[in-house]
Amino acid sequence: MVDQIGQDGPLDLESLPHSDTIGAELEAARTEPAPQSAVIPTAPPEPAKEPEEVQMAKRLHKMGWNPELSIRATCRILGEPEGGVRFLTVKDALVVLRAMYEQDSAAILARLREMEWDPDRPYLEAVKALGFAEKGYWLTLVESAVVLLQQDALQEAEAIEAELAADLPQDPAPASKPTMAMASVEPKEGWTMMQRSLHWHPQGTQKHKDPGEGKQGD
After folding, report:
1. Which residues pair with 200 in a beta bridge?
2. Of 96, 18, 104, 13, whose CA–CA distance to 52 is shortest?
3. 168: which residues sit within 8 A by CB, 6+ positions away?
4. What pLDDT score does 105 carry?
5. Distance CA 100, CA 114 (A)
6. For 187, left (φ over 0), alpha (ψ -120 to 50), or beta?
7. Strand 198-200 to 206-208 pairing
8. Is the pLDDT of residue 210 over 60?
9. Which of 23, 24, 100 is nearest to 61 (CA)?
10. HEC string of the chain?
11. pTM for the full model?
């Protein structure tokens, strides 16, 4: 290569790349993002399957099933055998169903309080206002919530009555008066003196002593 220098004419130094240009090109190449490999789409992970008792409880909840009914009746409505492992699964489903209804009951009570529902109105009107069907266990839940509202209203009325009574002026207690029994009691000594000044008739009549009584006549 050294032998070829100058054979094509004088070397043009200006045509050679400058060191600053080379450094800029290297820096640009260093900062450019590397080409990414194609991403192969993957299927989303399947959600964890719920336990069978939870699935059964959801079915019963949608039906408005009464959790107080027997396990055998629940098995029949679900089409499950009335014995074996499935029987125990239905039993567990009723436990889950009761917990679900407890949450529903709290939500219904909170909603009625938010609506400032009058507890003296028929509870079926509350069922309609909440958007429930007039059947199933929802009726029991709404009725229980209305009863709680009635108890709250009663306690509030009693508290107001007690507060008003506390603000009223209290009358002084009347002075005690002696009773007839107290007035008829005499000290023992005074009673003896009275006996001496009176003659007591055998039949109970009494007379004052006559100063001349008991003296012999002239």
Report:
1. 206
2. 96
3. none
4. 92
5. 21
6. beta
7. antiparallel
8. no
9. 100
10. CCCCCCCCCCCCHHHCCCHHHHHHHHHHHHHCCCCCCCCCCCCCCCCCCCCHHHHHHHHHHHHCCCCCCCHHHHHHHHCCCCCHHHHHHHHHHHHHHHHHHHHHHHHHHHHHHHCCCCCCCCHHHHHHHHCCCCCCCHHHHHHHHHHHHHHHHHHHHHHHHHHHHHHCCCCCCCCCCCCHHHHHCCCHHHHHHHHHHEEECCCCCEEECCCCCCCCCC
11. 0.53
Please, are residues 144 and 105 in contact by the beta-carbon 8 Å criterion?
yes
pLDDT of residue 218: 43
Tokens, residue 145? 């919530």
Q: pLDDT of 112-170, one tens digit each?
A: 999 999 988 988 999 999 988 888 898 999 999 999 999 988 888 888 877 777 767 66
**Where are the domains positioned within the chain?**
52-165
Residue 142 neighbours by CB distance under 10 Å: 26
Q: Are 100 and 86 in contact (CB under 8 A)?
A: no
Q: How far is CA 67 from CA 95, 105, 174, in A?
A: 8, 14, 61
Query: 41-96, pLDDT tens digit by residue?
Result: 666 667 778 899 999 999 999 999 999 999 999 999 999 998 889 999 999 999 99
Residue whose C-alpha is closest to residue 106's, from 139, 65, 148, 58: 148
